[in-house]
Design brief:
Blueprint lengths: L1 H27 L5 H22 L12 H24 L2 H8 L2 H12 L6 H18 L8 H23 L5 H22 L7 H26 L2 H4 L5 H14 L5 H27 L3
Helix pairs in contact: 1-9, 1-11, 2-3, 2-8, 2-9, 3-4, 3-7, 3-8, 4-7, 4-11, 5-6, 5-7, 6-12
Length: 290
């Protein structure tokens, strides 16, 4: 059992490395339009999904009839979250864009409390307030256009949180491959006209960057799923925040990015809130005998 938990944690950390490297590729692809990057990412992923579905995991990619509207809703939120995240990656430090996107679990707490009627407590509300205070420190609100990329990064966290809330509703109702398929398909449908209205032909290494965005995103998702299949998400999800640490490391090594003191302190508040929330849930689970 302990060995399985160790493997699960390792898979989560590997997933974080893949997602951090995906962010590197998004930034490295330079001035290729954001919609084009999202389009190529999902073309690669949908091809991989078909291959996996034919060879490893066989499931009905169309999903159950009663869940299709919900699958589309999850995909729309996901597309908004992905486009805004890629925009933030282009404009902000890698670590700052990543930590703002990692606000999504706190938005899940709020959305699940309101829409799924999950119990809200003073502790949950307090943790969310601390995390959002951290976000304010990173965004550094001002009457300037310079703040727009950080605000969009915040929106990426909120949209991703909405998408994950719908995924929580779909838990045990649809195969994970079906959920990813819908997300990739809707992403392609939405971004195709926007991509070709402002298409810029990639050249040289840019083709490699675009290909790797999709490959690394798929790899990250696969290792994340393997980790969650091997051990309870509530006990290993905190390790997802290693994504921020790897992003900070890659940002510094490749672009010499050093976030300012406000961003560093804001990141500490967000990660600290996540860690405290994680241990609070673990203690609550022990007390209730779950």
């Amino acid at each position: 059992m302990k060995e399985n938990k160790t493997k699960a944690i390792l898979f989560i950390i590997i997933s974080s490395i893949f997602f951090a490297l995906m962010g590197v590729m998004v930034k490295a692809a330079g001035d290729i339009p954001v919609f084009e990057k999202v389009f190529f990412r999902n073309i690669v992923i949908i091809i991989l999904i078909f291959l996996i579905n034919r060879t490893i995991v066989r499931t009905n990619l169309k999903g159950k009839r009663e869940n299709r509207k919900t699958l589309i809703l999850r995909s729309i939120f996901g597309v908004i979250g992905l486009v805004t995240f890629f925009y933030a990656l282009d404009k902000l430090f890698l670590a700052d864009a990543t930590i703002l996107n990692k606000l999504s679990p706190f938005f899940v707490t709020l959305f699940a409390g309101y829409y799924l009627k999950e119990k809200m407590t003073k502790f949950k509300i307090g943790i969310c307030l601390v995390a959002f205070t951290g976000a304010i420190l990173i965004i550094k609100p001002s009457f300037s256009f310079a703040v727009i990329p950080a605000v969009i990064g915040f929106i990426s966290g909120m949209s991703s949180g909405a998408a994950y809330t719908v995924v929580r509703y779909l838990k045990n109702k649809e195969n994970f491959l079906t959920i990813i398929f819908y997300f990739s398909l809707i992403s392609i449908i939405v971004t195709t006209p926007l991509t070709f209205l402002n298409f810029r032909m990639p050249f040289g290494l840019e083709w490699f960057y675009l290909l790797m965005i999709g490959v690394l995103a798929a790899g990250g998702q696969i290792f994340l799923t393997l980790g969650y299949k091997m051990w309870e998400a509530s006990e290993i999800s905190v390790y997802l925040y290693t994504h921020v640490l790897f992003s900070a490391l890659f940002g510094f090594v490749i672009w010499r990015e050093i976030p300012d003191i406000y961003s560093i302190f804001g990141s500490i508040l967000i990660i600290g809130s996540a860690v405290i929330n994680f241990y609070h849930k673990s203690e609550a689970a022990v007390e209730t005998g779950r």
